Each structure stands twice: as structure tokens, then as C-alpha cells.
Predict the structure.
Amino acid sequence: MGYFARIACVWLLLAIQVKAETSGSLEITGSYFPKSLGASFDTNFTAEAKVIGYEELDDFQLEYEIIIRKSLNDNGKDIVEPRQLFLSKTFGDIDVYLGYRHTFWGVAESRNLVDLINQQDLAAGISADNKLGAPSISIETYLGSGELQYWYIPRFRERTFNDANAHPGFGMPVAPAQFAHAKGSKASDQAFRYANSIGDIEYAFSIFDGTVREPLFLVQELEQPMIAPYYEQMRSVGLELQYTGESILYKFEGLTGTQSGKDFDAVVLGTEKTVYTIFETQWDMGILFEYQYDERAQALIDQMIVSGVRLTANDEFDTNLLILYTVDDAFSQSLFGLEASRRLRNGMTLDINYLLYQSDRQNLPFYSLVDDSELSFTLGYYF
């Protein structure tokens, strides 16, 4: 049993013994890959269990979120670890957190450039909601009406990847990661963020100094070809802006700085217009449009255009549908995505996801992902 598995089991036993406030979920996902190549599988099933708990320990608070995931055909998805496992304590107006913790920064729908604290659990899917916990010391306080955060992350958490023959997979094994920093994964990160609002405008400034979360990929020619993730160093300043009108949102995320000695700029800007009670029903419809620009080396496509529709039923079952269409500025490669969710009876939920990659030419990044187009159904039970 690995280190993370032992930690998870200890805290699960502790939760039972102290009768902490706990909740959790169990999800079963069935996936179908209609364009799968012969070297891979065209169906897969994944089970994921999650336990979330909270406990008062004298002057401290303990919070945890333990995840256990097992896949039928893709060992890269298998994981047992604490997404969150931290102690917190309040000193006057300052809250201090110690342990594995995750947070979210950003305002955009399609991509969050400034969300730099947590590593992505890529083996779980492309959604940015799939985060790995960051071992950290973090401090939060309020300056007037604004919130100030400081994060110190003493170790780097590598990204997870699917198996070589899985979806998506590189077609070759993943070698140990390489780092631009001499200390490798032991190099520390630091970050600040200040968030506030002026009238209808919400804004946030952030500073990051550490290892990038998105690696470059190098091919190693050893006894057999292998993919080696390579993580560069980055110093950046981020800006988030969101204007909230009566039925419209304007969003902006910008990032500028240096990565391994090279200056870069990246931006996501967009809008979302909401039309209420469409066709004289209780449904609301949001119309989204966003533009992405990123000149960093790990951004395989430097300009993307995203458009979409969000439908909300406003019913007792929390029925939602999101459709996004992403295309490069030359209209040569695209990704169509559909997400639908609905609560069922007795704590059950049903989620449907569909991803369709398209590309005109073999030398484009999305061409290698065409066989990873996926239709999945997830049945969840929450307790």
C-alpha cells in the first residue's frame, strides 16, 4: 500500500471513530470511444468513491476529502489520495491552513489561466474541476472588504496521466518527470492573491513564483521510446475582471510574466448573455463567447475561439445542459463538448458527457486526439 493510500485509510478510520460530520459519493462511469484505434480499447468502466469530512478538534478544525478511483482498462486512472486533508485555525482576523488543500481562481468558462495553485488530475478527464491537493501552508485574511491569500507550497505535485494505450494516451509509456529547477519536485512555490469588488465589477490580482502546472512533453529514445513531462519555472502576474449586469457577464483573465527566461502574455476574454424564461417556459438560456490567446510553449494552440449555450431548467431536479464548441483561429481543428446533468430520486444523479475532436491535417495537435472522442454516462449516489 502506497503512502497516500495509508494516509487515506488512517483518516477514514479516524472519521468513523470520532463520528465526524461526513458526506460522500459513489460514481460509476461507463465510457464509449467510437473512433478508438485498434491498439486501444473502445469501452471502459470507472468507479470512484469520495468521503468528505469535518471535525472540531479543540482549537483546530480538521477537513478532508478522500478519493478512491479504480478503472477497468486504464491503470492511469487508479488513485487513492487525499484531495484535501488539512488543519485550520483562526488567529484574530487571520485564518491559517496546513496540509493538502485546493482552491479555485478565475472567472472564465473555457479556461482559467490564473488558476495556478493546484495540479490537474488529468487522468480523471479534461475538466479543470479535477484537481489534486496541494501540500501547503496558506493564510487568508480580509483587508477592508477585500480578501488576501498567501500560499506556500513546499513540494510539487506532478500531473496524472492515462495509460499509454488509454484515452487520451501517448501511445508510449510516461517516463519520470524532468524539471527546469535544480531541486526538481522539491522546489517550492509561492503565490499571493487579492480579490475585491467595486460596484458591479469584481476583480483580483495575483502573483505566482514557482513550477508551471502544465508540462512540455519530450520524447526519450532509450530502450523504448518514452514521453517525459518537462516542467519549467514561471513568474507571473494575473488579473481577473468580471462585470455583472442585469442579464450579461463580461469576463477577463490575463497572465503575464516570464517562463524559463522568456517573456509571455496570455489572455481569456469573453461574455455570457442570459435570456430568461425562453419560449415562455421556466428554462433560462445563456449564450457564451470567449477568446483564448496563450503564447507559452505548453499551449500547443496559441489562439482559440469558444462559443456555447448553457440551458438551466430551474426545476427541482437541477437539470442543466452545457454545449461548447472550441475551434482554432484557422478553423482547422475543433472540439465539440456537451455536458448534461440531472438529479434523480433518493440521492442519485445522472451525468452525460460527449467530446468530439476534429482535425483537418495530421500535423495539428487535435489530430492525435480524434480517436479519444468519448461518450460517457455517470451514475452517482450522494450520501
Q: What stands out?
A: The mean pLDDT is 92.
